[in-house]
Amino acid sequence: MPTARIQGKQLIGAEGSATNAKTFVATNPGTGTPLDPPFHEANGEEVDRAMTLASESAEFFSNTSYETRAKLLEAIADGLMDAGQELLDRCHAETALPMNRLVGERARTVNQTRMFAEMIREGSWVEAKIDHGDADRTPAPKPDVRSMLISIGPVVVFGASNFPLAISVAGTDTTTAFAAGCPVVCKAHPAHPGTCEMIGNIIADAVKATGLPAGIFSLLQGQSHEVGHALVEHPATAAVAFTGSIAGGRALFDTANRRRNPIPVYAEMGSINPVFVLPGAIEERAEQIAQAFIGSLTMGVGQFCTNPGLILIPSGEQGDRLIQLIAANAAAAAPGTMLHAGIHDAFNKGVARIKETSGVQLLSQTEGPSDQACCTIAVTDVATLRRERSLMEEIFGPCSTIVRYENADEMVEVAQAIEGQLTATLHGSDSELSEHPSLIRSLETKVGRLIFNGFPTGIEVCHAMVHGGPYPATSDAHFTSIGPAAIKRFTRPLCFQDFPNDHLPPELQDANPRCIMRMVNGVYTRES
Amino acid sequence: MPTARIQGKQLIGAEGSATNAKTFVATNPGTGTPLDPPFHEANGEEVDRAMTLASESAEFFSNTSYETRAKLLEAIADGLMDAGQELLDRCHAETALPMNRLVGERARTVNQTRMFAEMIREGSWVEAKIDHGDADRTPAPKPDVRSMLISIGPVVVFGASNFPLAISVAGTDTTTAFAAGCPVVCKAHPAHPGTCEMIGNIIADAVKATGLPAGIFSLLQGQSHEVGHALVEHPATAAVAFTGSIAGGRALFDTANRRRNPIPVYAEMGSINPVFVLPGAIEERAEQIAQAFIGSLTMGVGQFCTNPGLILIPSGEQGDRLIQLIAANAAAAAPGTMLHAGIHDAFNKGVARIKETSGVQLLSQTEGPSDQACCTIAVTDVATLRRERSLMEEIFGPCSTIVRYENADEMVEVAQAIEGQLTATLHGSDSELSEHPSLIRSLETKVGRLIFNGFPTGIEVCHAMVHGGPYPATSDAHFTSIGPAAIKRFTRPLCFQDFPNDHLPPELQDANPRCIMRMVNGVYTRES
């Protein structure tokens, strides 16, 4: 997959397309230099062509066997590995993410893709339910009713800038949509269009190798918002997955809901991921907390949606001690290049806004070249937070605000004041957990994931994971965008009433030929 | 529960409230006479008071035991039965629904309420998932991750006019929200406000008897749209359930999505529930089909959301025979009083529109008094349907359009042209099912429930039931509003990472003290 093959075109059902003369280039955020080649911005005709192909292949794809879809996913995973260093090099050039991080992210991407292959092969994910009929029931016969999840139709995927492999063109949204049997049209992220095209080619090759119609995958380039909104507005689009800013996610959400037939938008948008440090935790392990906090905050130049942007620390000597340790660790944090100039600008503006807020003191700001982001820690108190609610808005990057609290009530007050979050974290001794039921209850209503004595970055890809949460963390708190349950976003239940056994999908047939877990007359069983 | 107790006030946390001088009265649709007493329209202060009480009781209620919630539901079920004939009489006076229908609907309401009590007692509905940690994993330790469904917060319920017991104040939306641990604020349907108040009192009494805070239930009256929209806009509202027209549901959906923090709206709106009759079915049982079709169409004066509004019948002699039989059955259908004057007006307008449509012939229209709705059957062909898309819009009431088709392609064309539906039905021989894969595939993409050789009215309350479907049948095709799975609407997953076992909810503790079905490391089990 030589970089030379990057053509700067749309990939519409495996065909290159460049009907729009308007182009843009990617920039190497590390050097500020533009990267070849120029990319053609998709136009309305190309949007329509991609969505029409997706629509035309949807019925066929939704009725393919799980084995076929598993093979598609495995071919994508293989292709990502086969692309080797050249893919990582282009990705590094476009994102400035360190090579070891990209190697790790590729491993996660490949692993989650293979995990979905295994999951759909096993088959229980369809949530098959069977209620047997009873022709003799009075006053009316009881019908035979059976249901299972089916694919929802063509999905439009907007990848994240901060995970160019794991949450982009071959990321978890595309993988779960394919697993569910949904065609995918990806809008390439304009900050890493070359990486997107290389991965797009890998997927197109995998589609071909699996003998599937080329129309189940397209990739459109574009720097403007127009391409994205045109995709969301297209009548063939059935659902949208997005990872990015609140403004971006909300704009797509609004577009989707203005449609004549609104469609679901799964937007994972933003979070400040508050961390509440109880006194016992400081007594037990202040140094560990300070070190792990700065590690979590500055990892990947702070460019994680689960980055801890707010940390509550008690007033008094114990808290002072923790803050000194945090300052010492922060001073040692290396500055870093951010994903692109836009993110760096927004970070600088956010830091400037915090520094100008009355009642906020700067604790620590490391020094570095002006084109890099420096770890910034501010300190304030609950009274200021009460007044300056903008302190509870996300600043994407290595910046966090310490909030000193006087008592448990102030912690509860903050927990109640924050908006919906992906995560919240508690640090304390086991016995302290019992002492703060109101805090825990309040946080439960605000977050998707509650962490004890850890930090929110580093999301385990497992069945129980919830990478989601109330608005504005996401636009739909019912779902997770990471882990096996993410597939539910791209499915809906379909019910068959009184269908002859032979004409039911195998998942719903009496003999249970797939040996999947089903709910039969209200009881979970793998029996036939 | 004497009717004399109907006070025409809001019921806000068990207290009567009537701060707005504006009133309205219910009308007996059978006699056209107004019914005592006048009902005070809720105002903004009352909306705020009800939602604030709901919000204040939400945390407590969401943390009550399943046993407590089950007892609440059982007390409601008991109360509905104890209210006896007086409740049914008032309901009959406000809806003109026949007494035997109301007795049956009450039984369904009580049964579904008890079913939810049993379901939450059993406990597996929380979908507990546990992934064990591994401190020794490299390169990073694996956290212990556990998740389960929790309640979403205060729910606003808009009941249906056509099910004053089963889908109204103590209907499936309220019951499932209570089961999930969500406070409920009901907007009473203005066509049966007295029934709503009587049932509201039953619920308030049940809340009190169960020792729960009064704030978990309020009932607001109102004829204008303002009360409803104010409820949807209120910051404390977490979700909305609605059953009614597309225009009404869409308006609430739009209001909810214009909020700073959008909230889910589960609107079950409308359907024409197309029925496709294949030639073999006519050969096998033409008389049965004709009789069952007219029965389904005219039951409850056609006022069901699953009413068959479009029936495809082959051209040619066989089809002619079926149509003659339908006409004969339709001629014998008694006219009936509709739920209220507004519905009757809309029905008359819909029938007039069909009759005026060029290419449509009237097959049968029974005669009756002008204040009653008469069974109306029109006939047209696919070419006309192609041109006159309004023929595919729902007319609520006993009116259906027969569409003659020439061949299988025309059936597929209609299946592809219809919007999202609650149901579609196929009548055919077993072997014919194999001959129409495209038709079945197309219908699968359009409906929530696919019925073979039956009729869509009469919804079985069971695990596998899907009373839902793509827009505009509902506003969210992920969910059903009938059956145990309806509870999912009012829940969302919450994940605990590395929490000490003692501090986890019982559902997620190692010992599995509730003996519920859980997914542990990807495997379903009831073991500890």
TrEMBL record, chains A, B:
InterPro entries xrefs: Ald_DH/histidinol_DH (IPR016161), Ald_DH_C (IPR016163), Ald_DH_N (IPR016162), Aldehyde_DH_dom (IPR015590), Aldehyde_DH_Superfamily (IPR050740), ALDH_KGSADH (IPR044151)
Aldehyde dehydrogenase domain: residues covered: 21-457
Protein name: Alpha-ketoglutaric semialdehyde dehydrogenase 2
Keywords, alphabetical: Oxidoreductase
Organism: Novipirellula caenicola
Lineage, highest ranks first: Bacteria, Pseudomonadati, Planctomycetota, Planctomycetia, Pirellulales
Cross-referenced Pfam families: Aldedh
